Amino acid sequence: VGASLFASNIGSEHFIGLAGSGASSGIGVGAFELNAIILLQMLGLLFVPVYIASNVCTLPEYMEKRFGGKRIRVYLSFLSLILYIFTKISVDLYSGALFIQRALQWSLYTSVVLLLLLTAATTITGGLTAVIYTDTLQTVIMLAGAAIVAGKSLYEVGGISGLQEKYMEAIPQEMYPGTQCGLPRNDSFRMLRNAKDSDMPWPGFILGKE
């Protein structure tokens, strides 16, 4: 269950999107993922026992039992489906297909179709059990892959000190006139940043955005 929660929360958009955000603004973007650790623990410790006791599998199903009537269940299901399609699934498909395109030189659209077919085949033929086992395998692969990439990257740049030095020297060759977009920030390696004039103020980190 823990591995399935991890794999459901972490995906290709994190490996590609957060890497890009970290490259552009520093380690502050990782603050929100630290908050996610706390929230996922709360989900497992506080809410999962409630779902099990209520004999439900989804939040819309729980809301129907909690408040009565099917309208709230249908509304929440429809809203979640729309939000996931436009804010989660589309990003996952694009970032996953982008990785496949870079790694195997396949067409972007071919990669998207392949991901959709593979996901559909796994879910339809195996159901939720297959999804959980797949998530467990993906957790091992993601953790191992992330550790290898991070270790090799730090080795190539000369460790943490080398990363800090080279990051502050990474200035793009082309910039927008009259802006500082692309220049490394002075607080790039600070997790808790100024609440007034930083791109990621510390109140947002404390209160969370997950």
What does this structure look like?
It contains eight helices and no strands. The protein is mainly α and 210 residues long. Helix 4 runs antiparallel to helix 5. The protein is globular. The chain starts with a helix and ends with a helix. The mean pLDDT is 83.
Largest sheet: none
Q: What is the oligomeric state here?
A: single chain
Point out poorly predicted stretches: none
What general outline do the C-alpha atoms trace?
globular
Mean pLDDT: 83
- Which structural class best describes the helix and strand composition? mainly alpha
What's the β-strand tally? 0
Rg, please? 21 Å
The helix tally amounts to: 8
Distance between the termini: 20 Å
Approximate helicity band: over 70%
Short description:
With 210 residues, the protein is mostly helical. The chain is built from eight helices and no strands.
